[in-house]
Predict the structure.
Amino acid sequence: VKKYGISFIGAGKVAGVLSRAFSDSGHRITSIVSRRKENCRELVESLNSTWSSDLSFSDSTDIIVIAVPDDTIREVSCRLRCPEKTIVAHTAGSIGIDVFPPELKHTGVLYPLQTFSPGRKINFRDLPFFIEASDRNSETVLVELVDSLEAKAYFAEASSRRLLHVAAVFACNFTNHMLAASKIIAAEAGEEFSTLEPLVRETILKAFENGPMKSQTGPAVRSDTGTIEKHIELLSFSPELQQIYKQVTSSIMDLYKKKSI
Ligand SMILES: NC(=O)c1ccc[n+]([C@@H]2O[C@H](COP(=O)([O-])OP(=O)(O)OC[C@H]3O[C@@H](n4cnc5c(N)ncnc54)[C@H](OP(=O)(O)O)[C@@H]3O)[C@@H](O)[C@H]2O)c1
């Protein structure tokens, strides 16, 4: 497998996990560029790399991975300076390669369909990465990078990748928010969140084994209006949670009214 010199712009959740994974796979992390050194001192030292706040890159960087908030990718890529052959890729699901200025000749997207948080070890084996590239050579290099992690490269038009990102927001971010709500309600009942763990694990396993539509249970799908009304009353300590309960209950009822599902 070919080894590359990779620089990261950003030292947050994605940059931290991806730079360590690439380094473990034998690539060289040539530099980590971020605004504040303190935030990434440990990362830079553990990667035997260097920190910089300067967006100029030399020949030793084959690939620049931009892992900054979505709304700043454009501004950062307009300011960076690199040799013409360098491939510049970002990691955002919702942004296309059209974000890059025309001066950058080799560009791409390297979107990992996973959730990254500090201190979490991620298993990259078979993890889907969605790739888009400006040219054949850049595409080949991005696929090689994904292969080197033993992850899986997929290709998607920017429009489908954006929609997939919305699916990921439902599956990951909204599910997690529901779990946060569940923890708050369990605490009202004087119970630990961990009491719900067997239920949550079975819910996720069943959704993938049997499909989520076949797996739905609960008062909404049964149209148990008496129970639903009692639940809404029990949530009177939080008008916000009452609102979510009503909205999701009505969404479940609407979905299962449609015979085609
Ligand atoms: N987290 C995930 O689960 C996940 C999954 C897939 C894809 N992504 C994508 O990965 C990208 C990075 O996400 P993240 O979660 O790693 O974000 P993050 O943890 O918030 O890190 C963002 C990094 O960008 C730096 N930064 C912020 N504003 C900047 C600016 N104006 N110029 C230069 N650097 C700036 C921040 O450091 P300073 O503020 O110190 O400069 C920080 O190091 C996003 O495009 C996101 O859509 C994230």
